[in-house]
Amino acid sequence: MSKHYVYADNAATTPISKEVLDAMMPWLTEGYGNASSIYAKGREAGFALVKARQQVADVLNCKPGEIYFTGCGSESDNWALKGTMHKLAAKGKKHLITTVFEHHAILHTAAALEKEGFEVTYLPVYENGIIHLDDLKAAIRPDTALVSVMFANNEIGTIQPIAEIGAICKEAGVLFHTDAVQAIGHVRIDVKAMNIDMLSLSGHKFHAPKGVGALYVRQGSIVLPNLIDGGGQEKGRRAGTENVASIVGMGVAIEAAHRDLEANAAKALAMRERLIDAALQIPHSRLNGDRTQRLPGNANISFEGVEGEALLLMLDNEGIAASSGSACTSGSLDPSHVLLSIGMPHEVAHGSLRISFSEMNTEEDVDQIIEALPKVIGRLREMSPVWERILQDDQASNN
Amino acid sequence: MLYSEKVLDHFTNPRNVGEIADADGVGEVGNAKCGDIMRMYLKIDGNVITDVKFKTFGCGAAIATSSMATELIKGATIDDALKLSNKAVVEALDGLPTSKIHCSVLAEQAIKSALSDYYTRQGIDPEPIVGPIGECEACH
Known about the structure:
The complex is a heterodimer of chains A (399) and B (140).
Chain A: E1 6-7, H1 18-28, H2 40-60, E2 67-70, H3 73-89, E3 95-99, H4 104-116, E4 119-123, H5 133-139, E5 144-148, H6 162-172, E6 175-179, E7 198-202, E8 213-217, H7 244-259, H8 261-279, E9 285-287, E10 298-303, H9 308-317, E11 320-321, H10 327-330, H11 337-341, H12 346-349, E12 352-356, H13 363-382, H14 385-398
Parallel strand pairs in A: 1-11, 3-4, 3-5, 5-6, 6-7
Antiparallel strand pairs in A: 2-8, 7-8, 9-10, 10-12
Helix pairs in contact in A: 1-7, 2-7, 3-4, 8-13, 9-13
Chain B: H1 5-12, E1 25-31, E2 36-45, E3 48-57, H2 60-73, H3 78-83, H4 86-92, H5 101-121, H6 127-130
Antiparallel strand pairs in B: 1-2, 2-3
């Protein structure tokens, strides 16, 4: 078996690109100065942060002063939601609107806020995994402080009508935050044109290292309470010595992602489309989420009669790394809340497979997946009593 | 999630997969909503389980525990099969992650369910012999 390793889980994390690693290395070696120090070694690190902040701001079309570096996307989400709600509670605004299928960094934060006494409305996302704008309009109340809708979903990749949501929030005088962790680097984002007040992003989803993210906060929208009290880093709001190398890496990575965005997206999309077409040839399979309004590299497909974790292990044996929304991979007993939110029955949700490509994947990778899928699904179905029943039902309805 | 080499081996090369057309007892436990269904087929001669096959819908651990459980009871007496605990299956697999222990419970229940069916077919009330099969706690 001369199989090469196919990494098709780029929505989970991405490899660091050579360009990014090369940019980081000096800051992991001779450039060890503390960016707050006055001497040359410190100043150089400080300048590197200035440059990286500019690179992130350029991509989002905002000012560098509106970018706060954080440790990850979850931190950015927590800060935006808790910070906003705690601050605006003083003005009697205790209502938060989000969606049922956000990442847990938002959902669990919203749940924590509910425990504190805040009220949360969870917008439905319907079968295609996209919210209805009328639902949002109807949900906004005089005491609504914040609307938080993810830019693109992490499991099924569906892209929300962010510009329209921004316009609605602006008109209603409600702050708008978006968790853009999955979208950044794959779709163009203009925080001004889209009326986005706050945006979370995470470096490791676009070939920067893990452990670095950012939160954009529009000047004039809100001054968030300090997340970490301490030194003067990040305007004193998020203290702690900056992770210079990783921040530099994120700056270079986001710039590169946007420099090559159209070409990368076209490449990932072609691979995803070929994979989806081939996967849907397998009987009793379905694509989850809207076919077109989705991230270029994302394919999420359910195969009836198989369980997702077993599918992942078999694919692993075939040299393929992918992901699933099955309960067994979520660490809980329920399958993915995202798949349930688009109306999928539990038993089908258990058999979902998420393939997420980046431009680093190749057509050979797609070939390998397309070859392996029917084989491993066939093997699992052969030993599945659920599949046996599906076949019996098929026969009954054919007679 | 870290599986032992034995779990991965039994998942990748499951023993005793399939059906027994003229089985003497068949048992099925679990449900698709929870993501695990195990069905076990037994061939019994006198007091000995001469053959056993299984079909399982479920995760890697569910398939591996089914495989190991069938290995442990193949050729065993009914009494020994009834004594097989989920713990013994876990130990034979060199352990399971905590969140997967319910799969081993399911394997134990599948054997008991198949033996219940065997006694019922003989016109014998299985309850005093097999005892309560119980339900997968995870499903509640």
